[in-house]
Design brief:
By secondary structure, the chain is an all-alpha fold. It is built from 15 helices and no strands. α1 crosses α4, α1 crosses α12 and α3 crosses α14. The radius of gyration is 20 Å and the shape is globular.
Length: 369
């Protein structure tokens, strides 16, 4: 696979991740969190929630995380070829990413993942020299570690953790900023427990993928996964269906047993399904080339991610159209895909005009000094 094709596959993965992340994040911007975490009475909203849990929740951020780890190793190799210090470059990059995360939390979306990525990047940084096989083993251990961590998260949620009392985003922009700052500490703890172990596992898998040439032609690791693809789809879907059934039953019957079943299945099932997505997207990239405008947007996914929240705020915030807590989950599903598409097109046009997205230009300038 040529460099052009490799970048096409990576950009397609980023694009799909952007779509999925928007679908998961949108309800937390448009509705009170308690409305998102409980089973809605309306059948259409209930089916939409179950569909998101089955196909989107806890899957697409893993694609993003895999590419983040892959990018770490690619940047390390680039620094080595240039005779530059990767440690200095990457330290500046993580510092800027953390700063962008704090600004994103304050100004756009309390569920920001950029600061968490910067922290997890510090943990993954010294592990990049470990062999790919051991990195994958560590990744598997982290996935299993996610089970007790998720159970700890349930304890916090059951104790009516502060992050579960969603701030009212229907007020003025200053009011929303104050609400985000007030709720962010609890929300960040929620994100660390919900995404931390699995995201770090995907980071390490991404580093291993880059070191073993995952996007290269006839790559051994990818070929093995291609052969396992039917099993990945069947196993991932089966475990996530069990998770959806478990979350539905536990909401209706308050069954602790089904809560445990749901946690165990989603922690394992989400990475399986995310792997199936990853392999399928790379296969599609070999046979179908997206328009350059979309590939440019995928190459500038950071700007797309932040723009999604800005557009959503304009729709649901009191300082915008004021749709907060007035749109059900069934309507939010296609609306979130529309918001993601609009942000992708805007960033693609911007990148075609100026070479890269605004946040990518800033991050690149800081990274390379």
């Amino acid at each position: 696979m040529s460099s052009r094709e490799r970048s096409t596959a990576v950009d397609m993965v980023r694009l799909m991740a952007l779509l999925g992340i928007c679908v998961v994040n949108m309800p937390f911007i448009a509705l009170p969190v308690e409305a998102v975490l409980s089973l809605p009475p309306d059948l259409a909203d209930r089916l939409a929630l179950m569909l998101v849990e089955l196909l989107f929740q806890a899957k697409f951020f893993l694609l993003f995380s895999f590419i983040f780890g892959w990018g770490m190793e690619v940047q390390s190799q680039s620094a080595l070829r240039a005779g530059a210090s990767f440690n200095r470059r990457f330290a500046r990059r993580l510092a800027m990413l953390a700063l962008l995360g704090v600004l994103h939390v304050t100004l756009v979306f309390v569920g920001d993942i950029l600061l968490l990525y910067a922290i997890l990047g510090l943990i993954a940084w010294p592990l990049r020299h470990v062999s790919p096989r051991r990195l994958l083993c560590l990744s598997a251990v982290l996935v299993l570690l996610g089970i007790p961590v998720f159970l700890g998260l349930l304890v916090l949620v059951g104790a009516e953790m502060g992050a579960m009392a969603s701030p009212d985003l229907g007020g003025s922009y200053i009011d929303t900023v104050k609400a985000r700052l007030q709720e962010w500490p609890q929300a960040f703890v929620f994100l660390v427990l919900f995404q931390g172990p699995l995201a770090l596992a995907a980071f390490l898998a991404g580093i291993a993928g880059a070191r073993s040439g995952f996007f290269e032609p006839d790559n051994t690791l990818r070929n093995r996964l291609v052969r396992l693809l039917p099993g990945l789809w069947l196993g991932g879907l089966a475990l996530n269906i069990t998770y959806v059934i478990g979350s539905t039953v536990s909401n209706q019957l308050e069954s602790e047993l089904w809560v445990l079943v749901g946690i165990c299945t989603v922690v394992v099932g989400a990475p399986l399904l995310a792997t199936a997505y990853l392999v399928t997207i790379t296969l599609l990239a070999e046979r179908w080339r997206l328009p350059d405008l979309l590939l440019l947007a995928g190459r500038n996914s950071l700007s797309c991610y932040v723009l999604q929240g800005i557009i959503a705020g304009a729709l649901f915030g009191g300082y915008g159209l004021g749709w907060y807590n007035s749109v059900g989950l069934a309507a939010l599903l296609p609306l979130s895909l529309l918001v993601a598409t609009v942000s992708i097109l805007i960033v693609g046009v911007y990148a075609r005009r100026y070479g890269m997205g605004p946040l990518e230009a800033l991050l690149r300038r800081v990274t390379y000094g």
